[in-house]
Amino acid sequence: MQRLYDFLRRHPTWVDSFWAVVLFGLSCVSVTNVNGASDHHGTRVGGLAISAVLSVVVALRRRMPEKMLLVAVATGLAQVVLDEQSMIADFAMLVIIYTVAATGSRWASSVGLIGGLAAGTISQVRWPQDASMAGNVAIALFQTVPFALAWVLGDSLRTRRAYLAQLEERASRLEKEREAQAKVAVAAERARIARELHDVVAHNVSVMVVQADGAAYVLDAAPDQAKKALETISGTGRQALAEMRRLLGVLRTGEHKEAGEYVPQPDVEQIDDLVEQCRSAGLPVDFRVEGTPRPLPSGVELTAYRIVQEALTNTRKHGGPNTGASVRLVYFDDGLGLLVEDDGKGAPHELYEEGGADGQGHGLIGMRERVGMVGGTLDAGPRPGGGFRISALLPLKPTS
Q1: 307-340 b/e with 16+ CB inside 10 Å = b?
Q2: Residue 132 CB: number of other CB atoms within 10 A?
Q3: Which residues cross the membrane (predicted)?
């Protein structure tokens, strides 16, 4: 049964043709039976011809509704001119009015409504069925009702289909928006992880490289210093691995996170440890805190830590020998200020101009992205008198 239903849905013209044949057969019987009546107007040939045309209207109503409407109107006018009284085949006019109201163009729907409302009156004027005027008016109104109902049903179906199509379009648009938002979220998360990886790897690897070079230089002359350097390399490597595990854990399920395997995100308090690590690696750092320390939003604290980490990493990479650095943290009422300076030879011009336009200044690009995410401002460039300076202002509330 389901197969038959699906087949009929795929071939609506076949269904309409079947009903057209049924309608034509009933019309033929009706025309033949009433043709000999004394009060009957018209001829058998005319009645059969009109029945045939109206049956074709039913058969092709869904393939070409507007054309079939015009054919039905022309046939109705011919029926009036040839004096062929109402017959069973006139049911096709109800069908085509319903069809154009449901699926046809707007002009066809309007024509169908006007024609349907006029059909009962025209029929009663041409073939009056009651001697009194009031009786003819009542019959005309009664004959108009089926045409009006046919149009209302068709127009209601059109409205329902339009509503369902709008719902489907809205659902499709929402689905596309969700997919776009998901892609944006994935891209943002990848960028965040990339920044974190860069900061962790660049800082810890630079410390390890400096210590390894120093250990190789004093390996024969000062074994104790070489041993201390190797211990620093080992500790730094372990710290880097711990940070890497935390970052890679973001890509896994939340089960391990619930088990507490992630280490906390770095914050402002850990800047002191970061400075000590740089000092042990051979970079003199003057660290000062101004204002009254207080808890800050986690995003601001992580951003401050990463900026100091990246700035000191750049100092070791580009500052040259005998370079010193200073770090200032200033607590304001509405934000946190950072100032990291060094007295080295400074970074190459292309690394800080426009955030690293040559593709090498990823650290400064990452800084600007981090600061922008919390609504802050960052300035990076050469310091008057030599060296390099990075200053940032991180507001406690994001700017609108």
Answers
A1: bbbbbbbbbbbbbeeebebbbbbebeeebbbbbb
A2: 9
A3: 12-32, 44-60, 91-119, 131-153
**Lowest-confidence region among 132-136, 167-171, 194-198, 303-307:** 194-198
Domain with CATH 3.30.565.10 in the chain: 267-400
Residue range 214-226, pLDDT digits in tens: 777 777 777 777 7
Please answer whether residues 247 and 204 qualify as being in contact, where contact means their C-beta atoms are separated by less than 8 angstroms.
no
Q: How much is the pTM?
A: 0.49
CATH entry, 267-400, from 3.40.50.20, 1.20.1090.10, 3.30.565.10, 3.30.499.10: 3.30.565.10
Tell me the three state secondary structure of residue 340.
strand
Region 232-252 average pLDDT: 67
Q: Which residues pair with 327 in a beta bridge?
A: 287, 340
User: In which element (H, E) is residue 169 found?
Assistant: helix 133-218
| Helices 362-373 and 298-318, axial angle in degrees (round to 10) | 160
Nearest partner of 99 among 141, 70, 142, judged by Cα = 70
329: its two tokens: 């943290």
Is residue 325 a contact partner of residue 341, using CB atoms and an 8 Å limit? yes
DSSP tally for the chain: helices H, then strands E: 13, 5
